[in-house]
Amino acid sequence: MCGIIGYSGHENAADKLIHALTSLEYRGYDSAGVTLFAENGTVTLKKQGRLKNLQQLLADNPIASVCGIGHTRWATHGKPSDDNAHPHVSGKVSLVHNGIIENYADIRRDLERDGAVFLSDTDTESAVKLLDDAYRQTGEPLSAIRQTCEQLTGSYAFAIVFADINGKVFGVRRGSPLIAAYGQDGNFVASDITAVLWDTRRYISLDENEIAAVTNDGIVVTDFDGKAVAKETKTAEWDSESAEKGGFPHFMLKEIHEEAESVGRTVAAHIKDGLPDFQSCGLSRQFLSKLKSVTIAACGTAMHAGLVGKTVTERLAGIPVRVEVASEFRYGSVFLEEGDLFVAVSQSGETADTLAALDIAKQHGARTLGIVNAAGSALSREADGVFLTMAGPEISVASTKAYGVQLAALYLLAIATAEAKGKLSSEDARLFTQTLLTEIPSKISEVVSRESEIRTLASDFMNAKSVFFIGRGLDCALSYEGSLKLKEISYIHSESYAAGEMKHGTISLIEENTPVVAVATQPELFTKTISNIREVKARGANVLLICPANFPNADIADTVFNIPATSELFTPFTAVTALQLFAYHMAELRGRDIDKPRNLAKSVTVE
Ligand code: F6R
């Protein structure tokens, strides 16, 4: 999604903005731009494509400035182009925007009727034109901003400068995240803290309907009634080193290498007396003991983690778990009532669809838990209880270590619920918790240490046009994730299927040499999966089997990757690491832009 930065300080603003925008590249973007204060007012430069295009433009048009705003755009309204890139300018106002203005078309129609000329196809330009009108009328920036926001529907965050107010950047939060940060030689507004970690870790989170006025010597926050708001200054736990590549060619590879430690750290932070601790997340043992069902809502990779959580919870605690694609949640019937647990899973904590599902769950009176990696995010603020995962910043668009820690959180919840309900003895619950704490991280590391083996297996498939993933039970849930990872970064078409479902239609696509990745980690399902592997082999498939060493008949596959031995309940942790590395090397062998795959955004803050 789009990235926002604003700076007011004593140093070269263009350098500061570009540095921050580079740090925000991971969010995904297709154009970039800046507005800088120059000698007589402001200058706006923007360019479609990668940041280097904007840097070239700045090199050709050097501007000595100590204040400005910048943006990386991920197209929603209007194609990627120079005209649609932000900042958008009208009169004295220059503005960058994250999120969506839902009533932009009505505003535009009214303004065009009155003679306004629009230069872009964006929803943003309606906002900047309204603000320009308001500023002409009021001559006062804060009331003009408030007046404009009252006319806009949707969710958005803005950074704004007014050409006649040199040295001041305004940031507004209404539905989309925004922070303000105290830098070393000036101050910032930004869409998230990773934008400025290279300069500072001291920041404040803006709440809904707050406006930050940022100058070189301070940050003043006011609400929509014009009252000053005292904000707590926080220190980001994440440092700049953890948001940099650290010698790895890509963030994705670095983050896979961090998965084991992230899982261990997450488990360690949520254990008390050897058992999972959910009391601190607002879920008492008594509440868990009475739980009749759980609903999990999430998107993409987080939703896939939910599918594994479903199987594990149902198996251990014996209660039904529904996993909902968050973007669909509002269209189906909602079976939630007081006393039910609703779990929203999200790395960023800012995914609009997941937040919308959370809102519905709250309206139905469910107890809500957010499993979230970003402290201070909307999910962490809006859920009744928060389980903070400890993956650290995940920069690569493709989620890897965040999936691992989401699994860890869901396993702990399953163990805690099963123990509270008396379905699992305290001894077994302790044993499982200990396994998650020590054995699983070390087994994940073992898989990572065999990376070159996986690269060789990937090279066998690198020219594939389409890859199928099959598995049963837990392995089916894993296959979804393996397939998603592969397609999003390698751009190879891929589908994942319950292994037994292939023969009901999709097997018609299997022909000589079609790659099939079969995931088989559950001993009680080995025989059945063997039959499904035989079915695709009989039609010419080239099968890579991911299984533990005790899999019988591994020779039916063309190639095999043995995951380390663990209790079968915990195989998703190691199998997924293998699948992530497989996707990574397929993409790398094909020369893809791994950390910033086309069309994708890291944090999807639009519905
Ligand atoms: C895939 C991926 C996405 C996210 C999804 C939800 O690699 O990263 O599918 O998992 O957009 O994002 P969060 O977890 O931030 O809610």
The largest sheet has its strands arranged as: 3-2-4-1-10-9-11-14
pLDDT under 50 segments (min length 5)? none
Discrete helix count: 17
Ligand types: fructose -6-phosphate
Taken as a percent bin, the fraction of beta residues is: 15-25%
Q: What is the number of independent domains?
A: 3
The main β sheet shows up as: 8 strands, antiparallel
Please identify which CATH superfamily of the largest domain we are dealing with.
Aminohydrolase, N-terminal nucleophile (Ntn) domain
Q: What structural category do the secondary elements indicate? A: alpha/beta
Q: Estimate the global geometry from the Cα principal axes.
A: globular
The number of strands is 26
Q: Which CATH-level-2 architecture of the largest domain?
A: 4-Layer Sandwich
Which bin fits the share of residues in helices?
25-40%
N- to C-terminal distance? 12 Å
Reading off the top of the CATH hierarchy, the class of the largest domain is best stated as Alpha Beta
CATH domain topology of the largest domain: Glutamine Phosphoribosylpyrophosphate, subunit 1, domain 1
Radius of gyration: 25 Å
> Could you tell me the mean pLDDT?
94
Oligomerization category of the chains in this entry: single chain
For this entry, give a set of tags.
17 helices, 607 residues, eight-stranded antiparallel beta sheet, six-stranded antiparallel beta sheet, Rossmann fold, single chain, 26 strands, 3 domains, binds fructose -6-phosphate, Glutamine Phosphoribosylpyrophosphate, subunit 1, domain 1, alpha/beta
